[in-house]
Design a protein that fits this description.
There is one protein chain. The protein is mainly α. It folds into three domains: 88 residues, Fumarase/aspartase (N-terminal domain) (Fumarase C, Chain B, domain 1, Orthogonal Bundle), CATH 1.10.275; 249 residues, Fumarase C, Chain A, domain 2, CATH 1.20.200.10; 59 residues, Orthogonal Bundle (Ribonucleotide Reductase Protein R1, domain 1). It has 20 helices and six strands. β3, α9 and β4 form a beta-alpha-beta unit. The longest helix is centred in the first third of the chain and has 37 residues.
Length: 464
């Protein structure tokens, strides 16, 4: 969309003698980035005009002219024919100036009983409402893909890790469902944030409200808001709802980054747990053999960018006295960038995940190594009546013995086991098999096949 270089009259210019300096025009404009709010600005202005007419503040004929003019301006913007002016600063003044030029005096009545302060708060809330609903849907789709993968690899065993050291055997589907649970909490966080986003600020005006008999509840109904904000000062100076969106976004990206990090590790030659699809990797300009997990690395990298957007707005808001200050113009770019980043990431991630091949043969071999079923020996002894701390010490000595003798839990002779505890019998060899270790788990939410199936079943009920 092109910028109009011709000098434009400021809607607020009546009090000023001097024209705004060219350097200030450039420094203060926000039209270069807030023009993307145009649909929401027109939607809000249309509802405002209807309310003004309903309340008898403007005539019905003027309201009809305003609404028709706004519709025409929207069509021009959508088609790329509309010329935005940098001198008119922002999307609100550009649309209003175009409306006045198009329909005359009736257009000048639109700004009755509102300020740019409550107008921009409205537009951002409308924008974030749409983005939050869209992102919630994308998170839901991601969760469904993860559950499909978990069902596809039902029964596959892998090593579970703590401290990046092999810990205990778990089901691959259990590991995948851990991420599905994270993303479900993310979906719930956005849904909860929507409750505070979906509040109408319009009618608060600059900060004090208006003496004109407006009907804010009617505007809220027209625009689909759940309620109206209750304090006009708070309404124009509040960006908590945006910070909450950015916070939920940061937590979501943290979860995505953790998954991306594991896929990077798992696809390396050192792990060989996963094969990433060629379409989601890149090569090297010098090393022909390379297959780099660039998409996962960018997801990990973009997480820092989203964190930065949250910190940026927190820092902007932390020292502002009430009510509105121009600093708050700096809220939009972090919000836009975060929403764009989330949307694009959530579109590509499920597509990539659905095409990953998990090397269950390699995972299975790895799951039984490094004494990963040692805890099962301790629990075996507990079931024989041995106190857990004693059982833990006995098992630790067994592991130490294996390390010293160069054997494994599976190859250690029964006679050697007996030297550590009279309670150990031949059935120990069955108990320490990785698949038996996994199936023996009976606690709610554990890694047994029955438990994971229940987790999938319960999560599907939540999100479908």
């Amino acid at each position: 969309m092109k910028n109009n270089k011709k000098a434009a009259k400021k809607p607020w210019g009546g009090r000023f003698k001097e024209k705004t300096a060219d350097s200030v025009e450039k420094y203060t404009e926000s039209i270069s980035f807030d023009q993307r709010l145009w649909k929401y600005d027109i939607e809000g202005s249309t509802a405002h005009a209807k309310m003004l007419a309903k309340q008898g503040i403007i005539s019905k004929s003027d309201a009809e002219k305003i609404i028709k003019g706004l519709r025409e301006i929207g069509s021009e913007i959508d088609s790329g024919k509309f010329r935005f002016s940098e001198e008119l600063e922002d999307v609100h003044m550009n649309i209003e100036a175009a409306l006045i030029k198009r329909i005359g005096t009736a257009g000048a009545k639109l700004h009755t009983a509102r300020s740019r302060n409550d107008q921009v708060a409205l537009d951002i809330r409308l924008y974030l409402r749409a983005e939050t609903e869209r992102i919630g849907g994308l998170i839901k789709s991601l969760g469904l893909v993860l559950m499909d993968i978990a069902e596809k690899y039902e029964g596959a065993i892998m090593p579970g890790y703590t401290h990046m050291q092999r810990a205990q055997p778990v089901l691959l589907s259990h590991h995948i469902m851990a991420y599905a649970q994270m993303f479900e909490r993310d979906r719930q966080r956005f849904a909860d944030a929507l409750k505070r986003i979906n509040m109408l600020p319009l009618g608060s005006c600059a900060l004090a409200g208006t003496s004109l008999p407006i009907d804010r509840a009617y505007v809220a109904e027209l625009l689909g808001f759940d309620d109206v904000t209750e304090n006009s000062i708070d309404s124009v100076s509040d960006r908590d709802f945006a910070l909450e969106f950015l916070s939920a976004a940061s937590i979501l990206m943290m979860h995505i980054s953790r998954m991306a990090e594991e896929l990077i590790l798992w696809s390396s030659e050192e792990f060989l747990f996963a094969v990433l699809p060629d379409a989601f990797t890149t090569g090297s300009s010098i090393m022909p053999q390379k297959k780099n997990p660039d998409v996962c690395e960018l997801m990990r990298g973009k997480t820092g960018r989203v964190y930065g957007n949250l910190i940026s707005l927190l820092t902007t808001m932390k020292g502002l006295p009430l009510a509105y200050n121009r600093d708050m113009q700096e809220d939009k770019e972090p919000i836009f960038d975060t929403a764009d980043t989330l949307r694009e990431t959530l579109k590509i991630l499920p597509e990539m995940l659905s095409r990953i091949e998990f090397r269950t043969d390699v995972m299975s071999v790895s799951a039984g190594a490094a004494f990963s079923t040692a805890t099962d020996i301790a629990e075996y002894l507990v079931q024989k009546g041995v106190a857990f701390r004693t059982a833990h010490e006995i098992t630790g000595k067994i592991v130490r013995h294996c390390i010293d003798k160069g054997c494994t839990l599976e190859t250690m002779p029964m006679a050697s086991y007996k030297t550590f505890s009279k309670y150990i019998d031949k059935d120990i060899y069955e108990r320490i098999k990785p698949e038996v270790s996994v199936s023996a788990k009976v606690s709610y939410g554990s890694s047994s096949s029955a438990s994971v199936k229940e987790q999938i079943r319960n999560l599907r009920k939540k999100i479908i």
